[in-house]
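Q: For a teaching handout, I want to show students what a protein-ligand complex looks like in C-alpha cell form. Below are the inputs, and the small molecule is beta-D-glucopyranose. Please produce the holo structure.
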Amino acid sequence: MQKAPAARFARHLIAAAALVGFAGLSVAGEVEVLHWWTAGGEAKAASALKATLQAKGHTWKDFAVAGGGGDSAMTVLKSRVVSGNAPAAAQIKGPSLQEWAAEGVLANIDDVAKAEKWDSLLPPVVANVMKYKGNYVAVPVNVHRVNWLWANPEAFKKAGAKVPATWDEFFAAAEKLKAAGIIPIAHGGQNWQDFTTFEAVALGVGGTEFYKKALVQLDQGTLKSPTMEKVLTTFKKVKDYTDKNAPGRDWNLATAMVIKGEAGMQIMGDWAKGEFIAAGKVPGKDFTCAAAPGTAKAFTFNVDSFAMFKVKGDDKVKAQKDLAAAIMSPDFQEVFNLNKGSIPVRLNMKMDKFDDCAKLSSNDFVATAKSGSLVPSIAHGMAVSSSAEGAIKDVVSQFWNSDKMSAADAMNKIAAAAKMK
Ligand code: BGC
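A: Here is the structure, written as C-alpha cells, with beta-D-glucopyranose included.
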C-alpha cells in the first residue's frame, strides 16, 4: 500500500521525461566550428577534434572553408558575423583575436580556463594572446614551427647534393637538383606561401634581431636598410628554382611534389609533415626535416587557436565550453598534434609518441624561448595587425611575380605598407 504513491510518481516521472525527451535535463548541444583544415593531414587532425567533441555527447557542425593559410575562411567568417550568424567556434589566431574581441562578439571563457588551470599549463606568451582585457576568449591547439625545409633524400642522392644549412648551400644544392632534372623547390604561388619563404629568408639572411626590428616592430629604418635589400634579392633568387606551374598552386600539392620526388625541397611550416605522414611516409627515411637555411637557432612560431563566439542557449554554451576544455586535455593535445605535424601547446607533455622532427621542434621551442630567438610568424598572422600584414604580403608577392620591380622599390613599398594600422 505504502509503495503505491511512490511507484505512481516514478511512473509519471518516466512518462514525463519521455515526453520532453529529457530536454530539460539534457545538456547536449551543437557546436558549429569554422576551420580551414581540408588537406590530408589537416583533415585527420580536424577529425580528432570532432571525435573529441562527440565523445562528450555533443554535435559537431562542420564549417570548413578550403584554402591554405585561411584567407578564404576569414572572408567567409566576416560575412557570417556581420549578418549576425557567427559560428560557435572559429579558427582565429594572433593579433586578430584582439581585433575580433574588440568588436564585442567573442565569449568570455574564463570559468573554463580557471577550472582547468590554463594559466599554469600554457607558456605565458601564448596565454596572453588568448586573452582580451585579461579574460580568455580563445583556446590554443598547437604550436607550428614555420621555418622548416622539407627534403626528399632520394632526389638529393640522385643529384649528389646535400641538404643545405645556409643560403649559399641552398643555391648550390638547387643547382645540382636542377642539373639532375629535378625541380629544386616546390612552391605554391599564393601570397601567404610567398611570404612563408620570404620570412624564412629574412630570418636566415638577416638574423633574429633584424627579423624582429623589421617585421615585428615594423621599424622604418630597418625596413629600408641594406640588409632588407639583401633579403629581398636572396628571396627573389629562390624563384629561379621553382617551376612555371607554381602560381596559384596549393601548398599541399607542392608537398606532394616532394613526396613523389618530382621536387627536391619545400619551405613550409610543419603542417607539411602532416601531409607526408598521411601519405604513409616515414620521417628520416622518406623525407627529412631541417630548419630553413641559416635559421637552426631560431624558431618562427604559429599557434592555431579557436576563438569562441557568443552563442545563445544553455546547451550551446555548455557544448562550446566542453569543446574548449577538451582542446586543452593531454589526450587531445597528443592525438591532434601527431596528425597535424605540430607540437602540443600544453606544457610538460610527454613526447615519446612523437617523431624526431617534433622532438627537435619541441626542444628548439624551449631553447629559443630562453635565448630570445623565438619569433612570431608574420605569414601566419602572429605578429602584426591584419591590415599591415595584408598590405606587406601584397607587396612581397608583387615583387616575387614582377619582372620589373627592383629590390629597392619593393623595400620602399613594404615600408609604406607597414604604416597601415
Ligand atoms: C595554419 C595551419 C594550416 C596552414 C595551411 C596555417 O596558417 O596555422 O593550421 O595547416 O595554414 O592551411
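A: Two things your students might notice: The pocket of beta-D-glucopyranose is lined by residues 36, 42, 68-70, 144, 251, 271, 302, 304, 380 (CB under 6 Å). Residues 3-20 form the longest helix (18 residues).
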